[in-house]
Amino acid sequence: MDARTILTKLRDGETPTRDELQWFARGLADGGVSAAQAGAFAMAAVLNGLGEEGRLALTLAMRDSGRVLKWALDRPVLDKHSTGGVGDCVSLVLAPALAACGAAVPMISGRGLGHTGGTLDKLESIPGFQTGLDESRFRDIIGSVGCAIVSASADIAPADKRLYAIRDVTGTVESIDLITASILSKKLAAGLEGLVLDVKSGSGAFMGTEESARALARSLVEVARAAGCRTSALITDMNQPLAPEAGNALEVAASLRVLTGQVRGPLHDLTAVLGGLALAEAGLAPDIETGAGAIADSIADGRAAEVFGRMVAAQGGPVRFVEDYARFLPEANVIREIAADRAGYVSAMDVHELGLIVVRLGGGRQVEGDKVNPSVGLSDIAPLGTWVEKGQPLARVHAVRETAAAEAIATFRRAVSLSDTAPVVPDLIRKRIG
Ligand code: URA
Q1: Which of 88, 162, 164, 184 has most ligand 1 atoms within 8 Å of CB, for mutation?
Q2: Do 387 and 292 fall within a single domain?
Q3: Which helix (H) or strand (E) holds 291?
Q4: 134 - beta bridge partners?
Q5: How far is 103 from 95, CA to CA, in rounded Å?
Q6: How far does residue 420's CA lie from ligand 1's centre (Å)?
Q7: What are 80's strand-pairing partners?
Q8: Whose CA is nearest to atom 2 of ligand 1?
Q9: How does pLDDT run across 48-101, given as a tens digit for each residue?
Q10: HSE-up (13 A, CA, CB side) for residue 330
């Protein structure tokens, strides 16, 4: 077998065989396939597609390019994946809530990508929190606490690691086939029995239109199920940030306010429904509504917060983090209100731009290897449909310097529209797939 033959087939619109895709994935992982060949593969896959069989074969081949974890636990091994958004800190609330409801949650998470935040970057705003655990420590924490949130080690889906970095710089991220194989190769390598997917749609999502979000959700559900993992997806709204905060430490604080029962709202409600779906799928609840109730109860009675606190301590963070999180989280030097320059309803948001504000403030990476500032971002963002008087706050910006805050305020004003009439606010949960 050789890369040129596989690439020629793909270029001519033929799907390579399962064996060929397996060979290619191995070559991605061990260097037998060059960067030029990987780039050509990605571009041909974007332009011609891999078809249903090819998509599944590539996913399995990339899963098997490294280690595939196996768990022998007395509870179901579950996880959630979101396609990425702004103010989306569901994982921080859901992982401990699922664990409190009887699941094991070995969550392998990512860093910020483009305008979206990453769970690992958020957790690393907690002093001492370690995301790079070795496998034996990861297993210990899953056994004793029930959940852990870690980065993928070098031997989890290494073919994806290499191909993803090449896609990132060759304009080949936006392919349903490649996104499916990329996301699921990592999730399946974690040895999951059940998975719920939160596929975002709207101005802050990678999949801007509802149609493309549905196509991605269908692809993910079909491939994951064919690979033996019980999976369902929700299409959810990303036309406004999920939590009213966007930024690493700010989102940890937002999650803690939900976990400690101070706040309910879209973050709480979506966590409950995604968790209910996961519990129902795993047989830990008779249906989604009962499962969502169990997740909400675990938050209301403090069990989810207690699990979160034990996870933080086990991963190197402060022992009394939950009780004292405001004291431990870093705070920005400059905090400024963004006042409305007219009265009106908050009627539309360019959420992609809001995410980029956080990145430019230093909360994400402009180039690979940038150090992330945990303290910066946006807070108290007024939700769609809110009426504000002239001069009332639309949000607060948290910055390192006054100049950065002023720039963020100007961009925020352009990204958020005010109108005289009340907008139709999209439903948070649009559709269930699977
Ligand atoms: N997240 C991934 O892990 N892979 C993609 O291709 C897109 C989003």
Answers
A1: 164
A2: no
A3: helix 288-300
A4: none
A5: 9
A6: 39
A7: 196
A8: 183
A9: 999 999 999 999 999 999 999 999 999 999 999 999 899 999 999 999 999 999
A10: 23
